[in-house]
Design brief:
Blueprint lengths: L1 E10 L2 E10 L5 E8 L2 E5 L4 H12 L7 E5 L5 H7 L6 E6 L2 H9 L5 H6 L3 E5 L2 H7 L11 E6 L19 H9 L1 E11 L5 H8 L4 E11 L4 E11 L3
Parallel strand pairs: 5-6, 5-8, 6-7, 8-9
Antiparallel strand pairs: 1-2, 2-3, 3-4, 9-11, 10-11
Length: 237
């Protein structure tokens, strides 16, 4: 297989690489991949979970003109799926690593133009976990509340890119996110692992209703099926 490095940056969490991969196993089909240190973050070949995060999160809403937060930009598939809904009034994307935002503004990734040109979308560099803990996700308006908060940052609630930020997945951290939602608002979380009953019970301590939806998709590298999980938690009306 062949790799072409499109961008490289040093970050506090490790070396960040955007690369194009051409794989003979898939008849030379190209895909974009993101690595952070030793962690493989995502590939444009596997996007079903990222898209489902947006679709399932928005489907659970009662708000007709929702204001939405996406925590974690990546290659932009969750954000683009949100913007595909014309009813969405605004989208705030919070990304820790400034080079990832820059990829979109520079057009290094296919969805960059889609996000950058949509007046409803604002991409900001910031620590989602710190903002959530402080009680204000919008750095320009800390008192602002949202209809949906959709998060795709860590591999799962148990497999973290930074072990120091695990508190957001515990009871008080989840309650802090719930307080930043309007009544009936939704918190949805992507996980690269199968449904975790223990985490679902923790969510139930902070939200009125919780569902864990398995998202299945073909994996050409294993010749079988892979599974992501989308947790959808709703605040009481």
């Amino acid at each position: 297989m062949d790799f072409e490095e499109l961008d490289y940056s040093r970050t506090p969490l490790g070396d960040l690489v955007l690369r194009r991969r051409v794989d003979p196993i898939l008849q030379g089909e190209a895909a974009l991949e993101v690595k952070l240190g030793d962690d493989f973050l995502m590939s444009s070949r596997f996007t079903a979970g990222e898209i489902a995060l947006a679709e399932l999160g928005l489907a659970a809403l009662s708000a007709s003109r929702p204001d939405v937060v996406v925590g974690g930009l990546g290659l932009g598939y969750s954000a683009a799926a949100v913007l595909a809904h014309e009813a969405v009034r605004s989208l705030l994307v919070i990304e820790l690593l400034a080079p990832i935002i820059d990829w979109h503004h520079r057009g290094l990734v296919p969805l960059g133009a889609t996000l950058s040109s949509d007046s409803r979308c604002r991409m900001v560099q910031g620590d989602f976990f710190a903002l959530a803990a402080q009680g204000g996700l919008d750095p320009e308006d800390p008192a602002r509340r949202f209809d949906a908060v959709l998060v795709d940052i860590d591999h799962s609630p148990r497999h973290l890119l930074d072990p120091g930020r695990g508190a957001v997945y515990e009871s008080e951290g989840l309650r802090s996110i719930a307080r930043q939602l309007h009544a009936g608002g939704v918190f949805a979380l992507w996980s690269n692992e199968r449904p975790d009953a223990s985490f679902a019970r923790t969510l139930e301590g902070a939200f009125a209703s919780v569902q864990a939806q398995a998202v299945r998709f073909d994996n050409p590298y294993t010749g079988g099926e892979s599974v992501n999980t989308i947790y959808v938690a709703r605040r009481a009306d």
